[in-house]
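Hey, resending since the last one bounced:
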Amino acid sequence: MLLVLSAPVADAATPLRAPASAPALGPGSVSEPTPPARRFVDPARLDRSGTQVQPLAGAPAVPSVSALSWVVADAGTGEVLAARSAHRKLPPASTLKALFALTALPHHEADERHTVADEELTGIGEGSSLVGVKEGYTYRVSDLWNGVFLSSGNDAVHVLAAMSGGWESMARQMQEKARSLGARDTHVVSPDGYDAPGQVSSAYDLAVFGRAGIQDPEFTRYCSTAYADFPAGSWSYGIANTNRLLTGADGVGRYPGIIGIKNGYTSNAGNTLVAAARRGDRTLVVSVMNPQSGGGLAVYEEARSLLDWGFAAAGKVQPVGSLLPPKTPPAEGSDTRTVSVRGGAGAPAAAGTAAKHPAAAPEAAAAEAAGQGPSVALPLTLVASACAAAVALWAWRRRVPRL
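The structure tokens again:
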């Protein structure tokens, strides 16, 4: 009797997947370790108002902050550690520029030069923050991005939008980008974040944008730059980032390990902020929308308190949600018995895609988390076991006399 041993083969529709390592988070940061598979959390929990947290033994108390809405999340795993009214739709002010950057950065190389036309500076809202872009001047794309991130320049946004399809096209592109990341509270009307009827986002969506941004080294470089020179023809002048957690200006202490990301203010939105910081091997992202007390600098101190809490709460809370987009349902007719092993929220794009353009990494990471990435070979342990069994069988048959 011949005994045939074979290793199981995965169905092509639902391939076995191996965990992938997390991508680098850009300058000044270290790659996240491979996070575990996503734990189940009630997706409806973040829809509730009030503070949502699931403390374990020894967990520190969540700080009392006045913001209408906020989120604290692990940037590596995407797990939301705590939140308040995470999906409440509120005006985002210039924090919407994080979504603008995610959308527009891939359109042009940093060293590309562009001469500004008069029509590219029309329609800028009254009272907008400006970096000083002038008609007829030639700028590198990197100069314009410094104007966006450091000075929150709506003039720089208008020029970059004009270079990338136009104002209305950019709003549509940003809307599509938000949906692709699983951010469904955001409605884009004015790509620079200027108050406009119907324009809203949420603390959840801003955290999604911040997390996606710091997976792109180019985004991270701009959002973490504290000071730069901005050209003005034959000379230049210095500009400083308006994110006080990054610069330590106006009596706000610089936060240890701060990465950036973007602050904002309008009379309608109040003060808003999405920020990220690293401590040890963990990176957190927080979003804070419209503090109700403490003045104009309260948004930074409330973000500081939430970051401190998030680092202290490591391993002491159960997640109350996830920043990952919802998992795509399996294709009709696929074999659901095949086990799918996914990398965590920080799983990178396929090597080829990420190498061609770093800005593609967040989308590919989301696709990887949703189970849409490329298939991988069977685990080596299965192959090794099958080979060992075959060798043992051969040796046994050599010892048994043939009849």
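The radius of gyration is 24 Å.

Sorry for the duplicate.
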